[in-house]
Design brief:
This protein is of the alpha+beta class. The protein is built from 13 helices and 25 strands. 35% of the residues lie in helices and 29% in strands. The chain is globular and about 80 Å long.
């Protein structure tokens, strides 16, 4: 799906991995447009003076910012290509770590009165943060994401929007990617720099560690004041707007891999899978053309029924093809040889159940029931992940029990009374075991969830 790039800390996303990102992007893009969000695009380079207007915000990214200081290369005296020292910029540019500041500079000119609000904007783009310890999909210097930036007339509307966007993330993760999540508020020390409130969807990976999988922020008037985003109110005076920002990135692919992977590779949730059904022809030199025609006809029937099938026509051993698709996690694998073709059948294996599920069916019955089988696989993957997560969240009545849990090196989260947060012993447990407060769950607002994380 991806590999390390020659560019330090970056990754190259291969076609299969990018096809998965495309599906995530398309599903999320549809949902945000349904609530009135419009896509736009803003520059990757941000003037240093502009980004410095929000000092508290950028301080959270300061050590990760890449800075452009020159604009030209030339051959040096040794005949090597080098930076031209005479091309130094009068003002440096920061490669965007996030875009609140530069978007604010545009938005302030687009809004004059309350009639222009709400304004809901999103951009699909890349960002760059100079990460010291990188890992494919989970933490790379450059990654793909969407960043939404919404502007409102009132604080109440902005707070409601923060919840709405978080709910959309939870839907994408749970109902498309089959990743169960816990929705909650970040503690003060874990909030997005400059935010009044940060909400998060936290997922638990198979090793019991947390993965912050999407965040939604109520920014109050922090950024509208720094960018001077004002509007004429209904009463005729001028007020600063209330804003939110929200983002989900290619990190979610890492979460999918670590939620649904097994010893044989990935298990791909059908709703988000680039290919839902792979058809593998078993060719032996006789009737090959007819077998391939039979496979293509099956593909078209499945496609007309609304599914995403493919026929593997690569010139390689059928067994090697099978193993390749097992590793890629294709939900349904269909094998067709001369006997299946003559009998009007196909041999079908479910990725979530493995070899024990292999069955020979008539192609008509398979096409008729394939979608319901895919739906069942989707449900099974979510239910298995949800069961695993629920079983590894324990309630601790006191800090001693929390310490004992992490001392025993158990996998999962501890749920504590929120009154413990910020105490000396609480902080010591976090320090001793490299755990952090993941969130204050929405459904248990008097509790704080702590655990190890990526």
């Amino acid at each position: 799906m991806a590999e390390n790039s020659p560019t330090r800390g970056c990754m190259t996303i291969k076609p299969y991995g990018f096809a998965l990102w495309d599906n995530i992007k398309n599903a999320l893009d549809h949902e945000i447009k349904e609530v009135g969000v419009q896509n736009a695009y803003f520059p990757v380079l941000i003037p240093l003076a502009m980004i410095a207007k929000e000092a508290d915000h950028i301080d959270g990214f300061a050590t990760e910012c890449a800075v452009v200081t020159h604009h030209r290369l030339k051959m040096n005296d040794e005949g090597k290509l080098a930076v031209d020292p005479e091309s130094e910029l009068t003002e440096p540019y920061v490669v965007r770590p996030t875009s609140e500041t530069i978007i604010g500079e545009s938005v302030k000119n687009w809004i004059q009165s309350y009639r222009d609000l709400p304004m809901k904007l999103n951009q699909w783009c890349n960002v760059f943060r100079w990460e010291m310890r990188t890992r494919l999909f989970l933490r790379t210097a450059e990654f793909l994401w969407q960043e939404g930036h919404n502007v409102f007339e009132t604080a109440e509307e902005a707070k409601s929007d923060m919840h709405l966007m978080l709910d959309i993330y939870a839907d994408i993760l749970e109902n498309w990617m089959a990743i169960p999540v816990i929705k909650g508020y970040k503690t003060d020390d874990e909030k997005f720099p400059g935010a009044v409130d940060t909400m998060t969807v936290e997922a638990m990976m198979q090793d019991g560690k947390a993965l912050q999988s999407g965040t939604s922020h109520f920014l109050g008037q922090t950024f509208s004041k720094s960018a001077d985003i004002k509007f004429q109110s209904r009463e005729g005076d001028f007020k600063h707007a209330w804003t939110t920002s929200w983002g989900l990135s290619t990190r979610s692919i890492g979460g999918l891999i670590m939620t649904h992977g097994d010893d044989d590779g990935l298990q791909m949730p059908p709703r988000i899978a680039p290919t839902q059904i792979i058809i593998i022809p078993f060719l032996k030199g006789d009737n090959d053309d007819k077998i391939l025609e039979y496979c293509q006809e099956l593909k078209q029937n499945l496609k007309q029924a609304g599914m995403r099938p493919e026929v593997d026509v690569r010139e390689m051993r059928a067994g090697d093809k099978t193993w390749d698709w097992v590793k890629k996690g294709i939900p349904l694998r269909v094998e067709i040889g001369g006997r299946e073709m003559e009998e009007g059948n196909c041999t079908v294996t479910r990725r979530d159940l493995g070899r024990d599920s292999k069955a020979t069916l008539s192609t008509n019955d398979f096409v008729k029931n394939a979608q319901s089988t895919l739906d069942e696989i989707q449900t099974n993957l979510f239910d298995a992940a949800k069961k695993q997560m629920d079983e590894r969240i324990i309630d601790a009545d006191n800090l001693a029990d929390a310490r004992a849990f992490f001392t025993d090196d158990k996998q999962g989260f501890v749920r504590l009374n929120k009154s413990f947060w910020g105490t000396e012993e609480f902080d010591k447990i976090c320090s001793d075991f490299a755990v952090t407060p993941r969130c204050v769950p929405i459904d248990t607002p008097d509790k704080v969830l702590i655990g190890k994380s990526y």
